[in-house]
Amino acid sequence: xxxxxxxxxxxxxxxxxxxxxxxxxxxxxxxxxxxxxxxxxxxxxxxxxxxxxxxxxxxxxxxxxxxxxxxxxxxxxxxxxxxxxxxxxxxxxxxxxxxxxxxxxxxxxxxxxxxxxxxxxxxxxxxxxxxxxxxxxxxxxxxxxxxxxxxxxxxxxxxxxxxxxxxxxxxxxxxxxxxxxxxxxxxxxxxxxxxxxxxxxxxxxxxxxxxxxxxxxxxxxxxxxxxxxxxxxxxxxxxxxxxxxxxxxxxxxxxxxxxxxxxxxxxxxxxxxxxxxxxxxxxxxxxxxxxxxxxxxxxxxxxxxxxxxxxxxx
Length: 314
Ligand code: AKB
Known about the structure:
With 314 residues, the protein is an alpha/beta fold. The protein folds into 2 domains: 4-169 and 214-240, NAD(P)-binding Rossmann-like Domain (Rossmann fold, 3-Layer(aba) Sandwich), CATH 3.40.50; 171-212 and 243-313, UDP-galactose 4-epimerase, domain 1.
């Protein structure tokens, strides 16, 4: 029986991934941890303990005491927050990963999951249908740490045979859990503001296209990747993963279909420069061929789901 440890379970991906993994592996077999207080949506759904992703000794202790066989390391500082304190972002993103990779070898973990991002790409990367393997020159500390992390994952796989798997997520849009410090967060905020105030000021300009994905697709893709047989995993860097691409203007148009008076204006800030260095669309044919990835949600379907779920909840 697999016993799973999730580090960073109270973040945007962590909350929904914990809930989904508990459905697959059983509530008691998925230990959620975070440096923060338990997220309200996790309460009562399974075991929870406080854990600092930087504290290798505490992670080892948790692995041993709970008979952990798999680790999902989700703790990270994202692109916008990372730029405010680059050294801190580098330390958190790198130290936590290398510690877990070492523990993976030492404790003979069966699998490790670590998320990467479209932030590994930079302005010299082909912007449209960005290939799996291409020019990679990230300009944010988040992107640098994710690319370095991918190389470390590949290194531990080649050198120690560690089964570590990874996805390059696009911007993720969710209604259950809040995003935290990313450049793509506008695409979540816009739904909340549309319902609350009928208007939104976007921190990205109207024609800034970025790759995006509804959280349900991201969670399903993550579990499918982790459950794929070893011989289907052909890259130990990180898989490109794609669903849709849109701009602030386009997402506003889909919202207007449901809320005709919705108004948007634009006040680009420092995040515009980050977005301008990222791909507009992603070629994820490797993930589709190797382990059968398929997305379900496009922009219209996602907008319908987001507005319906947020409205029912609030
Ligand atoms: C961010 O905007 O930093 C993240 C990401 C694309 O990895 N959502």
